[in-house]
Amino acid sequence: MSHLLNLPSELLARTFSYVNRSSLKSPRHSCRFISQLATDQLYRTVYLKPDETSQNRLQEILNNPSLCQIPRKIYIDTVDESLNYDDGEEQKWPQGWDNLVPQVKELSRLNAAVLCFDKGFTSDKTISDFYNTYFPQTPQFRFQAMNKLFSLLESLRHPIQDLGIRNLQADNPKDPQTLAKMGKVLSGLLSLRLSITSETNEAAPEHDLELPEIHKFFKELPSTWLRPAAPSLQHLSLCTREYSGFYPHLDLSNLFFPRLKTLSLGNFCFFHDSQIDWILKHGDTLEEIYFDDCAVLYDFRMKEENVDACAIPRHTLVRREGDDSLYGSFEKRWHDIFDLFAEKLPKLRNFRIGCSKWYPDIPFEQERGIKVGLYYNRYMCCYDGYGPSPYMEGEDPKNIANLENGWRPSPECDDEDRAALRNLLAKLGQSVQESYSNR
């Protein structure tokens, strides 16, 4: 024990940060110094869930003058796990939360919050549709929760610096008061992490992207969620249930984050040079990039009636023989992108591309766990109207492609991609694996 106490306090504190919560209870019965380190780490992050046990635990912390000075981060999980999805039971605002949630502002050192919602989302327009899976958290419940929880965040003694929302529904609040509270909380953030869920029709998932709500949400996302935080934001993470970027269109080109250090994208499609240019214009500050299940969209087809909802202007698309739909393509490959990052991002020190764990939920706070790999789905095509998803990867387009339908197979550039990635990682000083392809 004496040797342990001779270590610098900063090193001891960092060591305890790697100890799991259950193991932290024993050191609390040690000497006063070690007990304080263990206690600080044990209560640094607190949780609130709908169940009575969770509420009582948080209330005990709030009632303890010493403990309530410790928490820096809170997870507020709205999901009531006791509800049976098959019974069609609608979730209500948890009993006891109206009294407990406002007390969270007594956690005087709190600087980070994560709001968690159900992974499932059904809009009002389809809530009675037989083919749509029912989820207990209705849009009304989510909007009510957003209002109450942003009211809490707005009332904190010191503005939070780190905000995460897990399973944010692809439908923005419309209440002006809620939007005003959101804007106030978002301004001044250093870190923003959004995982975005959207509704699905299990009987015909190819039509999920034809629902108007999802397109409206992604059109509004930059102005509603990102622009208020732009001047101060250092860390940005966007991860979506559906592939985004192209269709639905997510346009980040008019945003600039002068202090951005970390960019993490999940299920994002690159289909135009302007998207790469947008990343490169943050070269003076960008240090870390994470691409989780992201793809180069090398070819795409849109049905006439859906063209205006995609990201490409109508006049740039063409018709191909044997098909009345409109087509476009993107010629840049991953090795081109890797080379540009190596050349034009001088401060980049960490880069990961591959896939993390996407089941049973959208990845959240898993960037560093991305398994580096050049997988089939790094190149995808989007052929509107094809099911069960318009997005296809790997050998699928090659097997279906023919002169009659005008579809094109995936690019064959494994060697070029692998060499460029290894060169980029070597320049960053990251270890290089033997293979980056699952072929």
Question: Can you characterise this structure?
Answer:
- This protein is α/β, with parallel strands linked by helices and 439 residues long.
- The chain folds into 2 domains: 1-42, Up-down Bundle (Monooxygenase), CATH 1.20.1280; 44-297 and 330-377, Leucine-rich repeat, LRR (right-handed beta-alpha superhelix), CATH 3.80.10.
- It is built from 12 helices and 15 strands.
- It has helices at residues 2-5, 9-16, 32-42, 52-63, 97-100, 139-155, 176-186, 212-226, 273-280, 334-344, 395-400, 414-428, and strands at residues 45-48, 73-77, 112-116, 162-169, 191-197, 235-244, 262-270, 288-292, 295-302, 318-319, 326-329, 350-355, 371-372, 379-383, 391-393.
- It has a 15-stranded mixed beta sheet that branches.
- Helix 4 links the parallel strand 1 and strand 2 (73-77).
- Helix 6 (139-155) crosses helix 7 (176-186) and helix 10 packs parallel to helix 12 (414-428).
- The protein is globular, with a radius of gyration of 24 Å.
- It starts with a helix and ends in an 11-residue tail after the last helix.
